[in-house]
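BUG: 3D viewer hangs when loading the predicted structure for this chain

Environment: internal workstation, default settings.
Expected: structure renders.
Actual: progress bar stalls at 90%.

Input used:
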Amino acid sequence: MKKKNSVTSALVDLIDVYWDDPVSFAIDLIGFTPDEWQAAAMMDVARYRLTSVRSGQGVGKTGFESVLVLWFLCCRPNCRVVCTAPTMPQLNDVLWAEVAKWLESSIIKKILTWRKTKVYMVGHEDRWFATARTAVKPENMQGFHEEHMLFIVDEASGVEDRILEAILGTLSGPDNKLLMCGNPTRTSGVFYESHNRDRADYKTHKVSCLDSPRTSKENIEMLKRKYGEDSDVFRVRVKGDFPRGESDAFIALETAEFAKEVRVQPVGYKLFVGVDVARFGDDETSIYARIGGKRVGEKHHHKQDTMTTAGWVLRVIDDAKREHDVTEVEIRIDDDGVGGGVTDRLNEINDERNLGYIIIPVHNGGATDDEYYGNHGSKLWGDVKELLETNMTNFILGQPGVIEMPDDEKLIAQLTTRKWRMGSNGRIYLESKKDMKKRGLPSPDRADAFVLAFADVEVKSDFAFG
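Structure tokens produced before the viewer hung:
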């Protein structure tokens, strides 16, 4: 009886102190000192429902997963932790063995018992445990229903979508969580979409071997020599990037992610504003403002009429003018559909107040003289694609970046999931919004407004960075 009381008392203390702090738990009780990315991802698992980590090989994700298994077991009463991987060797010989290693060397080994496919709380074998199940059948992931649950999916790129979807369907409680980790080997499926189309629903992390103190630099150099830095092998195994081979996205994910790390100064005195208008429904009205390559303002809203949208455009402009030296304003508006109402209202106000703003109605489906693109909208997206790629080229050459993006999951997902096709005339056309919606994607409203703000709508000399 004394042993049970002692265990119960210890658990109460653990839950109280470490409930939302797996990093301190790892350091204090496991003797595991996390790397920077591990600590950040651990805290995301504690705070959020869905977390997804893509990485190169050997960055320490198995140890990170193992510590989270032990943290959740000790800090959630009557909880369930389900660990899975595509194959039995990956699950038992790698992940489950790592759990055993850290448990054996920790000070919590007296309250947890490790078995070949199960770790359970002493005295609570049937209700309070972690289990290892291979990802071969959806039913293996079903039937778990507890207030506190954590699913950990190792090598998530190799797990079938029907199994991951079964897991997502099980997460019905407020403290039910999913952590997916793996090398990004496929450009389709639930794991891929967690870093692309669905990234607004997840806390995502990318871990490169180049930044990890745990990886073998000799192995990295070997892969570079053998396959080349631009190869898919190097991208996946070292950089933690998805391969290019399968993807037909117009803008590469890595260029958009890189741009959110770039910092540029506003150059010039001209303010450019891009406006994509959605009146009602699920679509979103979006406004971006920039000076040179720097975003200096934005606004997004749903279900407001065109008069209200015109007012928000003027507010974004006024806010930017208060913070920056602006002598000229150019507004680019998607004029198709309800956008025409915003254009008309802004023209009225422009005349009434003698503002002197340049207001340009843009028709994305209109013809273009560009030799590469089949319509105006595709050409504008091509301008932004080129700027994002120039960022990366300049970085390699030691030159400054040219465009800065906000760290906005919706914007990045919309920019990097739109596909393209080659027309019979040899020119490039972007995927239509109608076809995107058939794939289950939302209208790329933020991306369209961002493109309108940053693209060369009139002449190239208008888009200069000094």
